[in-house]
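Lab meeting minutes (informal)
Scribe: AK
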Amino acid sequence: MKKLYFLLLTILMSSTSFAQVLTENFDYGMTAGDLTTISGGAWVQHSGSSGPVAYVAAPSSLTMTGYPSSGVGGHATYSGTSQDVNRAFPEISSGTVYGSALVNLSAVGNGNYFMHFNSGGFRARVGAQDNGNGDILFGIGSSSSTLTYGTTPYSLNTTYLLVFSYEIATGVSNLHVLSAVTPTEPAAPEATNTGGTGTTISAIAFRQSSNIPALAIDGVRIATNWNEIMNNSTAASVSIVTPADATVYAPGTSSVDVTFTTQNIDLMIAGNQVNITVGASPMDADVSSPYAVPTVDGGSYMVTVELLESNTVIDTKMVSFSVNSETQVATIADLRAGTVGQVYELTGEAIITYIVTDNNRNQKYIQDATGGILIDDQSGTLTPTLNIGDGLTGLQGQLGEFSGVLQFVPVADLPGASSTGTTITPEAVTVSQFLAASESYESELIQITGVTFAVTGAFTDNTNYNITAGGDVTIARVTFGNENLIGANIPTTMSSVIGLGSEFNGTYQVLPRYVADVAGATLSLDNIQNNTFSVYPNPTSTGFVNVAGTNDDTISVSVYDLLGKQVINETLTSNRINVSALNAGIYMVKISQNDASITKKLVIK
C-alpha cells in the first residue's frame, strides 16, 4: 500500500474557455527568502528539508523579448542542496500539457534533471549536462530518470526559454530550447523521449539532487497548447490560491483563510465582485481576500468562489478541505489498530530504539511493551534534540503507510524527552515465529536467532540477504548507510541478527543497524577507518555526545579545537563523551580503536 499524502495543491485557474492553466512570475515583493514561505504556500515542499529553493527579490526577473512572463517581479534559484518543491494547478487528464520557463545556468555537472511535471509519477523531466567543453546540453526524460540529451551546445550564464511537453495518451515528451520567442511550435524538438502513458498532470516541480545545475528560473507557464505559452489570456477569471484542494488540517484548527486573486477585471466597478458560499450556508456577497472560514475538529468544508462581471457570474472555482479530529490511545498496539489518515495522541510513553541519519525525513523508530512504529517527520515538526533511549510521551500525529510499513507523522511538537537512557532488550524470535506473525514485529527491535547467511563477503548498502534456519527463509536488509555494518564481513557460521522488523510491499524483513547487531560479523580495517562510528547528537547543546555503532573493543577519544589544542583525551567506559566544559564552536573528534582511527567534526551550540 502507498503512504497517504494529503498533497498541498495550489489552484491557479483561468477561464475554462482558455487553455492557459498557470502563470508563475515569482512576483512576491521586495523580501528574499525560502520560496515556500515567501510565496505564502503557493509552492510547497514535497521532498528534502535543507537547502531551500530560494526566492530572489524583485526587481530581478529574467527577460526575453516578446515572452509574456518576461521582466516581472523576481525569480527563483537553486543548486542541488536538498529541498524539492512543487506548485499545483488544475488536473489535466487528456491531450498534451505544455510547460515553459526562462532559465539561466551558471554551473552544470555530468547530468541530472531539475524540473518536471507532478510531485509524484514524474513526467517530462527536464535536465542538463556538461558537453565536455564547458557548454550545456539540455535533455528530457518522460517517466524515467534517464534523459535523452540534445546535441546543440548552449552557453552558461545565458537566458534560454525552455518549452517542454507531455502527450498523455502516447507518453511522448518533447523539449525545445529557444533563444527567442517563436509563435508556432518548431517541427523538430531539441530532444524527445517516450515513457509512461495516461498520467494526469497536476503540478510543476523543481528538483534538487546530485549534479543538479546551479540555475536561476523564472516565467513558468503551463498550458494545453503552444499558443497559450507564448500569449496571455485576456478573459476575466478568479483563482483560489490557498488552501490546497483536499488539504487536511490538524485538530484544533479554528479557522482557515481562503485566499484568491482575480485577473483581467476591475472590482472597483459596480457589479464586478466576488461571492463565496461555504457548503449549504447562505452566500456571502462582495467579499475580499483572505476570507476566513470558521472550522471545528472533524468538519469537512466545500467553498465555492464566484466571479461576477456586471452582476453576471463569469467564472467559478471550488476548493474542499477538512479538519481532523484527534483520538487518544494509550499504547502503540492501540495506535497500530487505528485508521490510516486519522490523527492520534499516544498518551503512554514510547522509547526511541533507532534514529535514521542517512535520509532527510527525521525518522525515528519507537516502541513500548506492545509494539513498535516508525516516526516519519519529514517536515521537522519535532524540534527537541532526541537520542536513542529517550522516552516520548503525548506524541501527536497522523497515521500513515508507505510500502506496507505503518508510520506516524507528527502534527505537533513535544517539549522534550519524557525520560532518557532506557535500554530496550530485543525480543528473541525464530525465523518461523517471525514469518508467522511478521506484522506484529513491524518496527520493533527483535533478535532473530539460529540463522545462517546464504552468501559470504562484505555487507553492502541497500541490499537484501537471505537468512535461513532449517527450511525457513527470511530477509535481513542492510539499509542504514551511515552505520558501520556497511563493509563489515558477513558471518560464515550460524548467527543471530538484531534489527527492526520491517516490510516492503508484503515482503517482511529485519533491518540490522550496526555490526554488533549481527553475531559473527567482523569489521575490516577499511571499515573501521571509513565508517565505524556514529557521533550524536551533532550539533549538540546537551553537554554530551554519544559514540555508537562500534564493536566491544576499547575506544579512545581525543577532541581538538580549531587551533589544534587538545581539550579532551579519554578512554570511554560508556558510549558517552562529556563536552559540557567546552565553549560553543566547532571541534574535531579523533576516535581510535585497535590500530585504526577516524576523525569527525563536532559542533557544540
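Next up, CB showed the second protein from the same session:
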Amino acid sequence: MGIAKNLQPPDWVRSGAEITGGLDLLGMRLPVQFIGGTLLDGVTTVTPSVRYLAFRAWLVHRYGQTGQADDWQTYTDFAARIESALVLGNLTQDRTISGLIGADQALVHLDAGTPHVEVSSLVKSPASTIYTGPSDQLGLSKTRDNLVPALVDTRGLPLALAVQQRLARIPLLERLVSEPKLTQAALDDLRELGAVARIDQIPDDERELLLAAIVPAKPLPKERARVGTYAALLALAAKKKARPTEGDLFDAACSMNRFGEPLLDQVAVGWTFYGVRDAIAVTQEAVLAAVMSEIMASPEGSLAGLAREHVVGALMERVEEHDSALRDLGLLSAAESVTSLSFRELQRRIDARVSADSVSSQGVKRWPDALGEPLLYKRALKSGAGALSLAVVAWVLAAARVADAVRENNPQAGSLSYQGWRRLGLRDVILPELERFHREDRPLREVAAELAYRTVQQHLQITWSRLQVDLRRDVALLTAEGNQWFSRGKSFTAGRTASRIQQALGWLGQLKLIDAGGITADGDVVLKRAFAVLAEEAAA
C-alpha cells in the first residue's frame, strides 16, 4: 500500500478561507461525470438551444471579416453586444421563448418604454463563451488560448456561411458590426432581426449542418459513443411512440433487452456503468445529508460539537426509516426489522433477487427484477436516516451488476474505478470492502454506521484537497476535532449527477427528430445513418 493510502489528511485546518457553497462535496460525482463525458459530449446542462452553435460559428466568421484584433476579450465584447440584439429580437417575436441567454435583462430593456432599446451585454458570460466546449467537441471550432476561436473548415465554416446568407441582409446587424459604439436599436429593427433569427426555428440547411456535426456519418473514433447515445434515444422514441425521458434511457440500459438492438449494446453497457456510479454517489450524498440534518438539529452542533458516535448512533436509532427504505426495495418483510439483519443476509437476499433468470454480457449482469439502480437512487433521495442502509445496498448492487466487468478488465470498466481509492473506486475500495464485510458478517447496522463515518471522512478529504488548490475556497459542511463534529451552518441536499440527457433530448426536438408522437420521419433517417456508423464500427 502506498504512502498516499496510509496518510490521512488532517481533520481540519483553520486557514481563514471564505466559506463557499459547491456541488460534489463528496467527490463522488466526478466518476459519473467522466463516464457521461465519454458517452455524450458536445452538450452541457447550460446549452439548451442548439441553434446557438450556428450563431456562434457566424459570430466567429463575421468577427474575422472586421479585421479587429486577434484577441479573445475583444471578440467576446463584440459577440456579447450582437448576441444581445439577437435575444432582444427573439423576444419581440415571442416573450415566452426559452433557452435565450440573458432573457430576463433583455425584457427589462424592452419594457423600459423608450423608442429605442438598449443593446448591450446582458450577462457576464455570453453564449460565445458558454457554447465554447460543445462547439469544440462537435468539431465546429477550435480554441486558441487567449485568441479568437478558429472555425473548422469541414463543419464550422459551412455552418457560418449558411447563417451569413440570412443575417447579411439585416441592416441592424451590419450597423452593430461596423459601429462598435452603437448601443441603441429601434424596435422595428429588432423585430426584423428576430423574424429571421429565432432560436427555436432552425432553417433546413442549418439543421442539416448541425446534424452532420452532432450525429456525423463519418465520425471520428471519439464521436462514436455520442452517435450511439443519440441512436439509443431515437430508438426509444421509435419504440415508445412518444418523447422519451432520461428515466427511459436508464431503465432500458439496465434492462434485460437493453435498447432492443444489438448495435446499441455497447452504449447500454456505458450507461449502465453510469447508473452504477450514480447510485453510489446519490446514496453517499444522502448519507451526508442525513448526518448534516442530525448535527444541525442540535443546538450544540455548531458550538460544543457533537460526538460522532452520538450523531451516527442517533441516525441508526431511527429504525423505522431504515425499515421503510428496505421494505420499499422488497428486501425486508413487514414483520422484520433492520435490527435483526446481518450484512451477509442482506447480501444473500440481493443476490437471490438479481440472480434469478439473469443474463450476463461483457461482465455486466442484468435481471428481470425491478431491484436496480434507477429504483435505488429514487428511494435514496427521500429516505432520511434510511440512506445509511441504502448506501450498503448500493455497494452490494454495484458488485452484483459489474464486479465481473471489473475483474475481467472490460475496456469500459476502468471508469468504474476512476481515480481509485480517492473516489471509492470499485476495484480499489468497494469490492475489497464488500469481501471484508462478508467475512466478518457483522450486523447490517454496524456496516451502515461504518459507511457513514467513511462518508464524512470522504467529505473532509475532498474539502482539504480543494483547499490545497485554492486556499480561498472552503466548501466544508462540518469540521472534525478528535471525535467531535461541528456544523458550519450550511445545509446540504443530496442529488443526482446531471447526465445532460434532457438537454440532448431538447436538441433532438429542436432538430425535428422527435416530437410528442415519438420519432419523426427525419429522425428515422438519422437513426438509420447512426446504425450504419455503428455497424461499420462493429465490423472493424
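CB comment: The chain has 23 helices and 13 strands.
No objections, moving on.
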